[in-house]
Amino acid sequence: MTIWLLAGLIGLLAASGLFIGALVGYTGRLPHRLIANVMGFGAGVLVAVLTLELISESGERGSILATAGGFMGGALLFSLGNWLLERRGAAERKRCGMCVPQPSEAEIPGSGRAIAVGALTDGIPESLAIGLSTAAASGTEGGQGDMSLSIALVAGFLLANIPQGISSASGMRVAGRTREYVLGVWAIVVAASTIASIVGAVAFEGVSDVFLAAITALAAGGVLAMLAETMIPEAFHLNRRFIGAVTAFGFMVALLLGSAAS
pLDDT tens digit string along 122-177? Predict the structure, then answer.
């Protein structure tokens, strides 16, 4: 199987969690506390993927300066993009809408489009990381090949994407957006994330290990900034009791998945 096709399939599998979550979030009537706990679990999974997979891979490939620079660059890029989207009505795009509502189109014209772009922006760093990891695991770009790394990544991102889709789609429904619009947005996000995974696998072929380390760390920094600015606020809002333990449980599940895949 060619590397771009493999990366695309793995990226599609991981991103499909967003659509599954969106379907559950829009059609179901889940209570805020349940959604918040699921978001906390997903946050814990992402922290594990960042620390145990992406940053570890970056550190092994390049220098600490390349890892640190890429990581902070990715975080700053995401925060800048998120700030611009917030000004257009996408600040609460991961909110379930029960305590902190997303804006409706009547309240902020164009907010639906901004939320859609925001959902796409949230998924791009994850998809690039999957593409880079898949290429390295397949032995391209000078790697020796360790497919367990890609398995751990895709399992972690899949688990973390489901709660994101649940909370965001629930908030879209509360804001009055139609089922066709919501599911259409998430279908587009899944397709774009698949393409981003392919790009991550093929666009950096032949570059140096130091550059790859920086790009991997950049993706990790973007994911962490997304986690801090969009997922954690919903997980902890009016739901502080034991949410720390739920987040730790998500971390442990991702840790066990990675151990089992190695």
Answer: 888 889 888 887 777 665 444 444 445 557 778 888 988 999 899 889 988 988 88
Burial class (CB in 10 A: 0-12, 13-18, 19+), 167: buried
55: Cβ contacts below 8 Å, ≥ 6 apart: 67, 71, 217, 220
121 CB-contact burial (10 Å; exposed 0-12 / middle 13-18 / buried 19+):
buried
Task: Quickly list H helices, the chain.
Answer: 3-27, 32-49, 55-61, 64-86, 111-137, 147-174, 179-202, 209-226, 232-236, 243-261
**Is the separation of the CB atoms in 134 and 53 below 8 Å?**
no
pTM: 0.83
Q: List the structure tokens of 217.
A: 């760390």
Q: pLDDT-derived band of residue 18, with 50, 70 and 90 as boundaries? A: very high
